[in-house]
Amino acid sequence: MIDLHSHTVESDGTYTPAELVEAACRIRLEALGITDHDIFAGFDQALPLARQRGLDLVCGIELSTRAPFGRGQKTVHMLGYFLNGGPSDGFRGWVGRLLASRRERNIRLIRSLNEHGVEISLGEVEAMGRSLTGRPHFARVLMNKGYVKSTEEAFRRYLAESAPSFVERDSPAIEDAIREVAAGGGVSVIAHPVRLGFRRPDEEERFIAGLMEKGLRGIEVWHSDHSAAATARYLALAEKLGMLKTGGTDFHGGNKPGLQLGTGRDGNMSIPRAVLDELREHAAVVR
Length: 287
Ligand code: AMP
Ligand code: FE
Ligand code: FE
Ligand code: ZN
Description:
The protein is α/β, with parallel strands linked by helices and 287 residues long. It is built from ten helices and seven strands.
């Protein structure tokens, strides 16, 4: 069993890189992918520990990108996997600049929450994380201060795109992110496609095929939010389009309760090692 999608405290997970490596070894994962949002610090710290423990560690990243959608735009999560030798220095630099745009968003989000009657400061949310502050850290503070009872409520009332206090982030266009990942030595994969929210499979296929023309290489077929039917649909789609297949739980520790490393939600996942072998075999082929 492998898990190619997980988060550490360096982004919005609650496990330190060392704790995540330990947890992976405890459940005998054959490979672990660390895919923090916008940062490699978790992977970098985990790598020597994984080597000591004989754990096959895969370098990844999850990027929030903008894609054209109907008449507007939509935020689309994209995974980058660096299977041969890690990301280039150029790509690390590009990712560093994304972090700066996130900080700027956080300042505006604090201001917006203040305007909506919430007493919260940047220092309080930044204290919740390490290198990066994300909305789950805001959710924690809102809970600790008694504004909401759960993460879900924090997003629904204050942090989700539909909430009145929500603020946009200046995120890269998906085609730029795809190009940067490729130039940095990686392959790009559409994360948890079920969250794109398509009701019609033909429209979903057209959207993903359009991204493939821009250089997208794979689909996250297995994800803890995917039903058995959705997984089967994405597997068939990846094969039809000739795309790479990846999968993972999207483990965030206590920031996404009810989700286990490796096995997902109530044991709804078990990704065989062969998925990674195939990925490595085909990822090297430049297109
Ligand atoms: P950010 O990257 O700071 O904009 O925060 C995005 C992260 O917030 C996602 O990766 C999820 O971990 C989390 N998130 C987004 N929407 C929700 C939601 N409705 N409920 C819980 N967590 C969410
Ligand atoms: Fe997250
Ligand atoms: Fe995501
Ligand atoms: Zn994720």
